[in-house]
């Protein structure tokens, strides 16, 4: 991609139409030419934070593939800008595009801590790990401004309720004090995504995320403080990061992770168009090869919603990837694993303090 023509700091390079809208917005070439002649920017490329007011914050997860029963997301949309992100499609439900809007229109749920507390105090609620960031990263740049994730972690601690975290940002270490307190009661586990050890790859795939080096240092810091870490090599994209599985797994083990997980990339809904546009602009010589190899993993299509195969793929390429992950799991994580979180304390703390009788 020509650096001068790229939208800096963003993964997606366009706004795809929202599937729920009849009308679509397009920037015409004559308008772009006018802006160039006038020395104006056609696109200011700024992030906007928009407050929303959901009635609940904890969501039941029905998919059998994601390994969680409940999740919550303090933010919708994600400024990290990972071009492959499955969560992009959910931004359409809010009336925005899965493309650039997903990275630049961040919906903020300031009431999340209060809503979480209401949920945990319900007499009918039985403790079960709730996952922060089942959809969008709770430690994206917005967290530095709003601190909603930190407030939620304090609620989990107050009620002695188990919580799991998915992130790819070293900003999680800003909450190390609360995480250590949760870890004393075996109430927290962290899933940290490391997609590549190459900064060149990381920068174009995930433009506003922490560097690979910082992520490994984060794994080490969390592990040294008694917080178990599972490293997610997710997604694995053929011919982009598939050759790094061995190196990532070894580095994760060396830095203290107790397990690894993985998924094979799938480009559902609008993500197929976003990714195809991105790779043809970013890696034009490799674009067709990569796209065909992704299709090879999903029955000849970029879009795969089939239970049983969509996360692990099928075919020769997917088989090679899955076998390699099994090999490195045996080599670097044998007899290791994430501990089961403690669900036994919460009932005693439903009123925010220990019951004596």
TrEMBL record:
<dbReference type="InterPro" id="IPR007197">
    <property type="entry name" value="rSAM"/>
</dbReference>
<keyword id="KW-0479">Metal-binding</keyword>
<dbReference type="InterPro" id="IPR058240">
    <property type="entry name" value="rSAM_sf"/>
</dbReference>
<dbReference type="Pfam" id="PF04055">
    <property type="entry name" value="Radical_SAM"/>
</dbReference>
<dbReference type="InterPro" id="IPR006638">
    <property type="entry name" value="Elp3/MiaA/NifB-like_rSAM"/>
</dbReference>
<dbReference type="GO" id="GO:0003824">
    <property type="term" value="F:catalytic activity"/>
</dbReference>
<dbReference type="GO" id="GO:0051536">
    <property type="term" value="F:iron-sulfur cluster binding"/>
</dbReference>
<protein>
    <submittedName>
        <fullName>PA0069 family radical SAM protein</fullName>
    </submittedName>
</protein>
<dbReference type="InterPro" id="IPR040086">
    <property type="entry name" value="MJ0683-like"/>
</dbReference>
<keyword id="KW-0408">Iron</keyword>
<dbReference type="GO" id="GO:0046872">
    <property type="term" value="F:metal ion binding"/>
</dbReference>
<keyword id="KW-0411">Iron-sulfur</keyword>
<feature type="domain" description="Radical SAM core">
    <location>
        <begin position="61"/>
        <end position="310"/>
    </location>
</feature>
């Amino acid at each position: 991609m020509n650096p001068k023509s790229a939208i800096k700091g963003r993964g997606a390079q366009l706004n795809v139409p929202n599937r729920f809208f009849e009308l679509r917005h397009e920037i015409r070439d004559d308008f772009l030419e006018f802006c160039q002649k006038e020395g104006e920017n056609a696109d200011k490329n700024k992030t906007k934070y928009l407050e929303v007011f959901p009635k609940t914050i904890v969501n039941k997860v029905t998919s059998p593939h994601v390994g969680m029963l409940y999740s919550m997301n303090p933010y919708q949309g994600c400024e990290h800008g990972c071009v492959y992100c499955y969560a992009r499609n959910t931004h359409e439900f809010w009336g925005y595009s899965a493309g650039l809007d997903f990275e630049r229109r961040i919906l903020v749920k300031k009431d999340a801590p209060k809503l979480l507390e209401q949920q945990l105090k319900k007499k009918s609620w039985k403790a079960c790990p709730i996952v922060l960031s089942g959809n969008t990263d709770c430690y994206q740049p917005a967290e530095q401004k709003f601190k909603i994730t930190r407030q939620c972690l304090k609620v989990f601690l107050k009620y002695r309720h188990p919580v799991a975290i998915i992130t790819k940002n070293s900003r999680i270490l800003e909450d190390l004090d609360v995480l250590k307190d949760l870890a004393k009661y075996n109430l927290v586990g962290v899933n940290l995504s490391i997609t590549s050890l190459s900064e060149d790859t990381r920068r174009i795939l995930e433009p506003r995320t922490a560097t690979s080096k910082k992520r490994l240092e984060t794994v080490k810091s969390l592990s040294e403080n008694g917080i178990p870490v599972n490293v997610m090599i997710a997604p694995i994209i053929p011919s982009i990061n598939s050759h790094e599985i061995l190196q990532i797994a070894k580095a994760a083990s060396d830095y203290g992770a107790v397990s690894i997980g993985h998924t094979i990339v799938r480009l559902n809904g609008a993500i197929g168009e976003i990714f195809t546009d991105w790779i043809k602009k970013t890696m034009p010589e490799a674009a067709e090869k990569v796209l065909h190899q992704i299709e090879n993993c999903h029955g000849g299509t970029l879009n795969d919603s089939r239970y049983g195969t969509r996360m692990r793929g099928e075919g020769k390429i997917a088989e090679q990837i899955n076998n390699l992950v099994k090999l490195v799991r045996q080599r670097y994580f044998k007899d290791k694993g994430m501990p089961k979180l403690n669900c036994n304390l919460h009932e005693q703390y439903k009123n925010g303090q220990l019951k004596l009788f």
